[in-house]
Automatic annotation (TrEMBL):
Protein name as catalogued: Efflux transporter periplasmic adaptor subunit
Family: Belongs to the membrane fusion protein (MFP) (TC 8.A.1) family.
Lineage: Bacteria, Pseudomonadati, Bdellovibrionota, Bdellovibrionia, Bdellovibrionales
CzcB-like C-terminal circularly permuted SH3-like domain location: 243-302
Any one Gene Ontology cellular component term annotated for this protein: membrane
Domain Multidrug resistance protein MdtA-like barrel-sandwich hybrid positions: 87-146
Top-rank taxon: Bacteria
UniProt domain CusB-like beta-barrel: residue ranges: 172-234
Annotated spans, Disordered: 307-330
Signal peptide feature range: 1-22
Pfam families linked: Beta-barrel_RND_2 (PF25954), BSH_RND (PF25917), CzcB_C (PF25975)
Entry-linked NCBIfam families: RND_mfp
Length: 330
């Protein structure tokens, strides 16, 4: 009897320690850590309100003739023949100032008046040496001046030089006089200004180890101002038909870059394989088709956007509410 009791106790202990297996048809809660994870979607659908709030803008991926470019930092400068300094022909005092900095002037227009120091001398008008704008004023009323002093500076920026700064790399050997260039800056809008390489320095700067490249650029609307910093894109190959998208449409890091493609209110995130850079455009080798709308503004925010909740059918919701209010016997 004693042996029987000991054996029964051992069987009970073993039974408690063994795992319990679920049989087919039984429902059991998932073990911690084994829950099914949510699948990350590559497309997000937004309401019109959300699209407007994000300020989303798109452009079409296009096939157009493109040339490989080298981008360098540039500084806008006046052409030497389109910049002048107004000075006095004799010593005297400034008695009148007729124009202001930033004002447009014509060649021969009076800039200021000098009263010579010689007794009995008539006032002398100082004319503008060329058509342009007053870029600097170096004197005030009553100031004494001498013939060698620069009184005002006038510049004509309808055509400018953009001085590109190149470092000592193999890219320098690809640049030649006469190549087409485009000038880009966030301050001049999306349309770059066009020009050509006019000349290059004959030697590197001894201290900075840089070489200056000068491009002649048409600037009829004066979008480019002297001393403005810009990006100078120099075309170093012949144009070929290439599919491109704006650089600002591309997100991610090298090797994991992507864009958002819009179709109606849906925005699909697509990985892309990129090629050469053409100024503000980038070649797309894989991931986008011609004429597809790619997002250029608001694309960063789209990474964190969630799809809009679908609208519930009012009649179905009302029916469910009525059913929930009834008591049923089972």
């Amino acid at each position: 009897m004693k042996k029987f009791l000991i054996t029964s106790a051992l069987v009970a202990v073993i039974g408690l320690s063994m795992p319990v297996f679920a049989h087919e048809g039984e429902d059991h809660a998932a073990a911690p850590g084994t829950e099914e994870t949510a699948q990350v979607t590559s497309t997000v659908e937004l309401s019109e309100t959300a699209i407007n709030n994000l300020g989303i803008k798109t452009v079409k991926a296009t096939i157009a003739p493109r040339a490989t470019t080298i981008d360098v930092n540039g500084i806008v400068e006046f052409l030497p023949e389109r910049q002048a300094i107004a000075s006095a022909r004799a010593a005297g005092r400034v008695s009148e100032i007729n124009v202001k900095v930033g004002e447009e002037v014509a060649k021969g227009q009076r800039l200021l008046t000098i009263q010579p120091i010689f007794v009995g001398s008539s006032p002398v008008s100082i004319p503008s040496p060329l058509d342009g704008y007053v870029t600097k004023q170096n004197v005030v009323l009553g100031q004494s001046v001498t013939p060698e002093a620069g009184l005002m500076e006038i510049g004509d920026s309808s055509e400018v030089l953009v001085r590109g700064v190149m470092y000592e790399t193999p890219d320098v050997t690809k640049v030649q006089v006469g190549q087409n260039v485009s000038v880009n800056s966030s301050l001049i809008g999306n349309e770059p200004l066009e020009g050509k390489v006019q000349r290059m320095d004959g030697a590197y700067d001894r201290g900075s180890r840089t070489l200056n490249v000068y491009a002649l650029v048409e600037n009829p609307d004066r979008k480019l101002l002297a001393n403005m910093q810009v990006v100078l894109s120099i075309e170093v190959t012949e144009p070929a038909d290439i599919l491109t998208v704006p650089v600002k449409a591309i997100l991610g890091e090298s090797g994991e870059q992507f864009i958002f493609v819009r179709s109606g209110n849906a925005f699909e995130r697509r990985s892309v394989k990129l090629g050469a850079k053409f100024g503000a455009e980038r070649e797309v080798l894989e991931g986008v088709f011609p004429d597809e709308e790619v997002v250029t503004v608001g694309n960063y925010q789209l990474q964190f956007a969630k799809s809009a909740e679908p609208k519930k059918d009012a009649s179905a919701a009302e029916t469910k509410k009525e059913d929930d209010g009834h008591d049923h016997e089972h």
